[in-house]
Amino acid sequence: MTSATDIQALASDLSLAIVRLTRHLRGRRLDATVSLTQLSALATLSRQGPITPGALAAKERVQPPSMTRVIASLADIGLVERHPHPTDGRQVIVSLSEAGRVLIANEATARKAWMTERLATLDPDQLETLRKAIGIFSEIVDEQES
């Protein structure tokens, strides 16, 4: 049986490992002129497709005024485009520009290359353990986002 103390220790160790992994992945960034907040918004647009600033703010879990500033800065450097909402004249729809799509693709390629290089050093049992862990992580995140 796993005690509450064991679970707390695991939570702490796991959190630290994820923070360190994230730091390494961020280190692969090719375009440091875009902040991590901006990059996150771009990645969400890449996954979700064109959406309103309010919906993007909700997905990113930030306040709408903050997202408005992020969108404005991304539009200024040509990474997103704003178009009129088809049914609500008070709204706009935000989408990735071609430059935004290229930036996201380059970021993903750099992270994937680094991760592939690191995973290639593991033995088959370690790789299988990671496959199982990914499923568990996905369940944890999916439950939280529901």
Structural features:
146 residues, globular, two-stranded antiparallel ribbon, Arc Repressor Mutant, subunit A, mainly alpha, 6 helices, 2 strands
Description:
This protein is mainly alpha-helical and 146 residues long. The chain has a single domain (4-145), classed as Arc Repressor Mutant, subunit A (Orthogonal Bundle). The protein has helices spanning 4-26, 36-48, 53-60, 64-76, 98-119, 124-145; strands at residues 80-84, 92-96. The chain has a two-stranded antiparallel sheet with strand order 1-2. β1 (80-84) and β2 form a beta hairpin. It is globular, with a radius of gyration of 19 Å. The protein starts with a helix and ends with a helix.
Report how far the terminal alpha carbons are from each other.
29 Å
The average pLDDT score comes to: 90
Helix percentage: 55-70%
Biggest sheet details: 2 strands, antiparallel
| Low-pLDDT residue intervals, each spanning 5 or more residues | none
Give the SSE string.
HHHHEEHH
CATH class: Mainly Alpha
At CATH level 2, the architecture is Orthogonal Bundle
What's the CATH topology label?
Answer: Arc Repressor Mutant, subunit A
Coarse morphology? globular
Domain count = 1
